[in-house]
Design a protein that fits this description.
transferase, D-amino Acid Aminotransferase, Chain A, domain 1, D-amino Acid Aminotransferase, Chain A, domain 2, transaminase activity, alpha+beta, lyase activity, Branched-chain amino acid aminotransferase/4-amino-4-deoxychorismate lyase, 19 strands, 5-stranded antiparallel beta sheet, 2 domains, 10-stranded mixed beta sheet, about 260 residues
Length: about 260
């Protein structure tokens, strides 16, 4: 089921026709019995991305700025969000028609481990800071990863550093510190929350270096998951794991879930 955000009433109304193109900007989050982790951050990132690329959009002209847009978007979501069951909805922006849509989807099965495949070519994204801009390319990489028996694709920059995955933040645990790239990557809501929980630092390693350390992947759907193996070429490399740390991280993240009806 999908809805369009009416800029006049600032409410979602049922969509009449499916879009003919891929959305240019998106954001997704897990809804568990009406509770969502850092939903304000997801909505703010969505609005900020729209304004950065399409400042003349009728939505932000109507509300004045990204902050007030976020408030009105949260209020609109509160009126249509299910409060029972698990859902993984997606906010979508279509610049061709200047439309914001809300796609209500049931949540896929969640996993606790993420096996990674390393493509032979560098990160293909044109705008990694804008979630959704390179959606078709990332979806294709993820599909290839699955054909190779993995869950996600590892994105490697032209310098050879592994920076994130097609659909998640990437972190490596070195001497008790959680390290992740912060340049040339999406501003991950999951990673931002984690920075407030444990010691973190900016660093990134090559895929060949990663295999010697515990590696974790985080996103809104799965939380943090362990990486048991990385497929480089035709070789599957087994990695050390840190299950207790992942358990602690996910328990701490759950404390940031709020009821959508409070907005």
């Amino acid at each position: 089921m999908s809805f369009n955000l009416d800029p006049g009433s600032e409410q979602f109304v049922p969509a009449k026709n499916p879009p003919a193109v891929t959305p240019r900007i998106i954001d997704s989050f897990l809804v568990d019995d009406g509770r969502i982790r850092s939903v304000e951050s997801h909505c703010h990132r969505f609005g900020r991305s729209i304004y950065a690329e399409f400042p003349a959009t009728r939505y932000l002209l109507n509300t004045g700025d990204v902050e007030s847009f976020t408030v009105s978007l949260l209020a609109a979501l509160a009126t249509i969000m299910p409060v029972a069951g698990q859902w993984f909805p997606r906010l979508e922006y279509y610049p061709e028609t200047d439309d914001i849509r809300f796609l209500l989807r049931t949540a896929p099965n969640q996993r606790s481990h993420t096996a990674l495949w390393v493509p032979e070519t560098p990160d293909p994204r044109l705008k990694p800071r804008i979630k959704g801009w390179d959606l078709d390319e990332l979806t294709a990489l993820n599909a290839t990863a699955r054909r190779n028996g993995c869950d996600d694709a590892l994105l490697v920059n032209p310098a050879g550093a592994a920076i994130e995955t097609a659909f998640g933040a990437l972190a490596v645990i070195v001497d008790g510190t959680i390290c992740a790239a912060e340049t040339g990557v999406l501003e991950s809501v999951t990673w931002k929350l984690t920075q407030n929980l444990l010691p973190t630092t900016e660093a990134c390693l090559s895929p060949q270096e990663l295999i010697h350390y515990p590696v974790i992947v985080g996103n809104a759907l799965h939380g943090w998951t362990e990486v048991p193996e990385i497929l480089i070429g035709s070789t599957r490399h087994r990695l050390p794991t840190a299950p207790e740390l992942v358990r602690r991280l996910n328990a701490a993240l759950s404390n940031h879930a709020v009821d959508i009806r409070t907005f």
